[in-house]
Amino acid sequence: MDTSAIGRVLLGEPDSVAVLGALREFEQHVASRLLGVELRRLALREGLLEQADQLLTGVALVPLDDAVLAAAETIRPATVATLDAIHLVTALRLDDARLIDTVMTYDGRLAEGARKHGMSVIAPT
Questions:
Q1: Domain containing 39 — which CATH number?
Q2: pLDDT at position 22, please?
Q3: What's the total number of domains in the chain?
Q4: Rounded CA gap, 82 and 125, in Å?
Q5: Which end of the chain is more exposed for a tag (fewer CB within 10 A), N or C?
Q6: What angle do CA 40, 119, 39 make, to 5 degrees?
Q7: Of 67, 66, 70, 62, whose CA–CA distance to 33 is shortest?
Q8: Strand, helix or coil for residue 103
Q9: Is 56:36 a contact under the CB 8 Å cutoff?
Q10: pLDDT of residue 110
Q11: What span, in angstroms and rounded, lies between the C-alpha atoms of 46 and 75?
Q12: Residue 19's pLDDT is what?
């Protein structure tokens, strides 16, 4: 998952119930370590740091390393935004290792990139 999904839960947006319902359908929740940075930065702005920490307890965060960052520099499609490229590379690595079934995102460019690489994408509503 990326921040566009779990951030909706943090902010109590209308589709947060759908996100939580979809998350219950999966045994494990995995994301790039970048999710922790993005979600906590959002939480700091909104005064919701404790809630962000609670949400992150159920997510396995994959460490960032030089290989992920290097791959994110040139991953296709070029329309994927900078930080989303890190999420995409992380998802691809997990998919290659058969450790994930799908990508949860509400970001259209990230979703398009994941689909172009053959991954399943959901955006619960």
A1: 3.40.50.1010
A2: 96
A3: 1
A4: 26
A5: C
A6: 5
A7: 62
A8: strand
A9: yes
A10: 98
A11: 32
A12: 97
Phi, psi of 56 (to 5 degrees): -75, -15
- Express the helix, strand and coil content of the chain in percent, nearest 5 each: 60, 10, 35
CB 5 within 8 A of CB 107: no
**Position 114 confidence tier, pLDDT thresholds 50, 70, 90:** very high
Q: Which structural domain range is residue 113 located in? A: 3-122
pLDDT tens, residue by residue, 11-32 = 999 999 999 999 999 999 999 9
Instruction: Sort strands 60-62 and 30-32 into parallel, antiparallel or unpaired.
Output: parallel
* 40-75: pLDDT as tens digits: 999 999 999 999 999 999 999 999 999 999 999 999
The pair of three-digit structure tokens given for residue 47, joined into one six-digit string: 């005064």
Q: In the beta sheet, which residues pair with residue 104?
A: 122
Strands, E assignment, 1-125: 30-32, 60-62, 103-104, 121-122
Residue 66 pLDDT: 98
- To the question of pTM greater than 0.85 for the whole model, the response is yes
Q: Count helices and strands (H / E) in the chain.
A: 7, 4
